[in-house]
Structures are given as C-alpha cells and as structure tokens.
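During the reporting period the student researcher (J.K.) took over the structure-prediction task from the postdoctoral fellow and processed the backlog of single-chain submissions. One of the processed entries is reproduced below for the supervisory committee.
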Amino acid sequence: MKNGQYLYKKHTIPCLIGILILLVSGCSSSQKSYRQYSTNPKYQQIISTAKAQIGKPYHYGGTSPKTGFDCSGLINFSYKKAGLTIPRTTTQLYKASSPVEKRYLKRGDLVFFRINRRKISHVGLYLGNGKFVHAPSSGKRVNIANMNDKYWRLRFTRGGRI
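J.K. obtained the following structure tokens:
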C-alpha cells in the first residue's frame, strides 16, 4: 500500500464518525428546542388570546379589546396576557425575532408581510396549516387569513420566533 492510501484509510473512518456525531447532536438539540417551544403553555395561551379577539375592530395604535387593535397591538396584547413583554411595533418585532422560513413555521410564530413593498408593515400570529390571525386594516376586524391566498403569498417576507 502506498503512503497516501494508508493515510486516507487511517483518517477516513474517524472523520466520518466525527461528522455523524455532529449531525446527530445538532438534530436532537433543534428538535428538543422546538418541542419545548410548541408545548409551552404560554404559547398556547398567546394563540388562545389572539383568537378570542376575532371580530374586534381594527384601530390604528390600538392595543386593547375595548378600543380595537392594530396588527402589532394584537400581538403585543396576546403576549402580555401570557405574562410576556415584547416590543410594540411591527418593525421592532421583526428585528427582535429569530428568522423562520415559511416551511418551518410553527403555531405561535409571528408572520411578517410587506404591504407597501418598501418596509415590513404587517404582522400576524401563525396558527398552523397556512392560517394566521391578524388585525388587517382600517374598517376591518381581527380575523383569520390564509397565507396561501395570492394577496398574502405575494407579500410574505418571513416568519419570526420570539
């Protein structure tokens, strides 16, 4: 056996074992962190609170069921009811959240949209199966929308996890 072949065979198996260990440990930790996130009662409460606001009027700057909600006000109210403090505006929420691709969205994640094509201007709370609850715009009420509808699909930017 030539010297190069010996070194190749000598180092190949340990390298492969090392790579396998890294892959397995990386997978299990991400599954564990999501499992903790998705079963956390606080996130279930956030979703329940947001859904309970369906039918409340849109109100620019609104943060309560009495006056109505704007999009980030609904999110802020829902988190506050669960005892969590988060940023108030859509832009602040976008910056504070960890990015999540559409295919990895989980119940309780935030979903961000560019309505006017320039900046992030709308946020909702993901419910699963392509649905999200949000306070849409003036003259409308808090409702559930489908991210797969053409309007939302074209404006979706990314998900976010707080």
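The committee noted the following: Residues 3-39 form the longest helix (37 residues).
J.K. will present the remaining backlog at the next meeting.
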